[in-house]
Amino acid sequence: MLKLQKNYSLNDLNTFGFDALAESFIEIDSRDLLVEVVEYCQSNNLPLLILGGGSNLILSDQISGLVARMLNKGIEIISQQGDQLQLKVAAGEGWHDTVVYAMSQGYFGLENLALIPGTVGAAPMQNIGAYGVELKDRVAWVEVLDTQTHQFLSLSSLDCQFSYRDSLFKSVEPGRYIITDVVFNLTRDATQLNLEYLALKDTCEALAKGSSITPYHVFDAVCQLRRQKLPDPAIIGNVGSFFKNPRVSVVEYERLKAEFPALVGFADGEGYKLAAGWLIEACGWKGKQLGAVGVYEKQALVLVNHGKGDRRQIETLAEQIRESVQQRFGVLLEVEPRFYP
Ligand SMILES: Cc1cc2nc3c(=O)[nH]c(=O)nc-3n(C[C@H](O)[C@H](O)[C@H](O)COP(=O)(O)OP(=O)(O)OC[C@H]3O[C@@H](n4cnc5c(N)ncnc54)[C@H](O)[C@@H]3O)c2cc1C
Predict the structure, then answer these.
(1) Is the pTM of this model over 0.90?
(2) What is the CATH number of domain 5-70?
C-alpha cells in the first residue's frame, strides 16, 4: 500500500517559489517503490510527475495525479583504471553536492558544472551545461526504469541522444524513462581542464596567482562567476536561463551582425548560437517588471518571481519577450524549462 500524501504543497519544492498544490505526493527512495508508483499510476490512469529539485519546472497552481519526488541516495566508484574512474550516483543526490563530493575525493571532470541547482537524476534531462562543459561530456551511461516495459535499462551516452539542452528524455520520448542513477567518467588527472570560456580562464588565472591552474581553481572560479551573475533561488525565485540560445545559419548570422554589430554569437557546428540574453537586453527588457514577475537586473536571460508571481504572469512576460525579439531580430526564442502540466 503506497503512503500517498494528499493535497501536498509544492511551494518549497519549485525554485520559482510558485504556489502549487499536488493532488497526491510521494517520496521515492528505492527502485521497488518506483516500480510500485508507476504501476499504481498506470492502473489508475493517473498522470505522474517525477520531481527532482524543481529548478527547471514551471508549475500550475493545481496539479492533478501524483507527484513523485526522487530521493534515492548513493555514490560509489564502480570501476577504475589508472587515473580514470567511473562514479555511479543515485538520481536523488543533489547535483552540486555531488560535484563537491567528487572534488573532495580528487575526482575531476565536473568542476565546470558547479553550483547548478537540482538533482543528479534530472541532469541528463536537458543535458545540463555551463562554462564550456555539458553533462554528455562526462556521462558513461544512464540507468532508467522504462515505464512501458517496467524493465531497468542502461542507456549509453549515445542512446541518450544528448544535444544542446536536450535529450531522449526531454523531447524524443518524454515521460517514458525515469532516471534512477547516472554513471560518470571522471579522472584523477588534475591537468585536464576546460578553460575555453574567457571569463573563466581570466578568473582562474587571478585565483591561481601565477601558479598552475587546478580543478579546484576552476571550481572556485565557476562558483564566483555564477554568484555574481545569477540570482540565488533561496532569495529570489527563478529557474536559471529561461530561453535557449537560438541557433541561426551563417548567412543569417552575417545579416544580423551587419545590422547589429554588437550582436553576441558563437560559431557552433554549421551555424551560430546567438546569446539570447543579449537579444533580450537589446529589446530593453533587462530589469523590467510585469506585475510580480520580471527580468533579472543583472542577466536578461533569467526571469524572476518578485514574490507573488504565478505561472500565468510568467507565460505573459515570456510571450511578450519572444514577440519583441522576433520583431526586432526575426529570431524565435525557445523556452528552456518545462511547463507542467
Ligand atoms: C539559478 C539557476 C541556475 C541554473 N543554471 C543552469 C545551468 O548553468 N545549466 C543548466 O543546464 N541548467 C541550469 N539550471 C536549470 C536546472 O538547474 C537544471 O535543469 C537541473 O538539472 C534541474 O534539476 P531538478 O532536479 O531541479 O529538476 P526538476 O526541475 O525537478 O525537473 C526537471 C525535469 O526533469 C524531470 N525529472 C526530474 N528528475 C527526473 C528523473 N530522476 N527521471 C526522469 N525525469 C526526471 C522532471 O519531470 C522535469 O521534466 C539553473 C537553474 C537555476 C534555478
Answers:
(1) yes
(2) 3.30.43.10
